[in-house]
Amino acid sequence: MPLERLLRIYFLQLWFNLSDPAVGEALYDSAAMRSFAGVDLGSEAAPGETTICKFRHLLERNGLGKTLLKATNQYLKENGMKIGNGTIVDATIISAPSSTKNQDKERDPEMHQTARGRQWYFGMKAHVGVDSKTKRIHTILASAGNVADSDALPHLLHGKETRVWGDQAYQRQTDEIRKAAPGARDFTNRRYRFGGRIDARIKARNRRQSAVREKVEHSIGIIKRVFGFQKVRYRGLAKNPHRLEVTAALANLFRHDAGCSMRERRIGVGACRRKRRSGPAAGAISASRTDRHRVRVEIPVVMTGRFEVPWTGATSAAERQSERLKRPGFRHHPIGSAFSVRFALPC
């Protein structure tokens, strides 16, 4: 089975939040997915869940999630989306099953509970570092839910920042910011309630800084709301960080293609498409805005080309995804984008 085909199937699995058996069934039921993955049922069968599972384990064992995120960011850099000098840091909770109705009669020992306000959650945390200008994720980490947000702060900076934004969980970390990025200024929000008194000056400054800080929520929203990564699928912290890294790479491509679609309205479709085709492997799989019942599929990894197939939407095998696909804006935005993957898989 060609590695490119398995990689495309893995991307479909993450885009539609499908399990290994579900994505195998969806390949039989969806002509759009078969065309994107390059599966021809007339010549060979679609890969089964065992093959898909082994390929995923191969990626996890060799730590290729980070490699894929770096390759994606390098592709975007070559096409004009450079990482700036500002970083926004934030953390979000990925829930895990809290039930003890299993063989061990206990919850996942690597997941922990944490509180947000008066609400308690059980799961892991995803710590993200996002570029303040392009909203591109350049660093993403995973930890247990009880790890403090500020503990991951030095690891979320690339070292060339001049400004760092964050919420009140990252306050009083100026020394750590200076160690990781010597030229960075601390723009994290500060506490403004002191007993029963509110400092209006600090509150107004937090409000101004939040106009920039809120951009990180857009990138997190793609991972959790568009791609459906709101709950862990695997036990432990060995497999979930890999899925988080690959999903972050796909979210960057989503933002890049969606941003180009918005620029088409301002500078004209022709100019934006010429810019989109300027990369080494231009292409995307996206839902057309003029014809919502068709999808344009372009070869996204190594090969180049373009062809059209009918968009079938949620099929019987992916019926559990139908509600998510009906969310406003899901079909009206591109599902992925193209890039050139340059890494070798071990035999």
Overview of the structural elements:
The protein is α+β, with helices and mostly antiparallel strands and 347 residues long. Helix content is 38%, strand content 18%. The chain is built from 11 helices and 11 strands. The strands form 3 sheets. Strands 1, 2, 3, 4, 5 and 6 form a 6-stranded mixed sheet that branches. A hairpin with a 6-residue loop joins strand 9 and strand 10. The longest helix has 28 residues, at 240-267. The radius of gyration is 21 Å and the shape is globular. The two termini are 13 Å apart.
Short description:
By secondary structure, this protein is an alpha+beta fold. The chain contains 11 helices and 11 strands. The chain has helices at 3-15, 20-29, 31-37, 49-61, 64-78, 174-180, 200-213, 215-226, 240-267, 269-276, 322-325, and strands at residues 86-95, 112-116, 119-131, 137-144, 163-166, 185-188, 193-194, 197-198, 285-287, 294-298, 306-310.
- State the distance separating the first and last CA atoms: 13 Å
Secondary structure: number of strands: 11
Mean pLDDT: 79
Main beta sheet strand tally, sense and closure? 6 strands, mixed
Sequence stretches where pLDDT stays below 50 over 5 or more residues: 264-271, 273-317, 323-347
* Helix share bin: 25-40%
The H/E string reads: HHHHHEEEEEHEEEHHHHEEEH
What percentage of the residues does DSSP assign to strands (E)?
15-25%
Q: Class by helix and strand content?
A: alpha+beta
Principal-axis shape? globular
- What Rg do the Cα atoms give? 21 Å
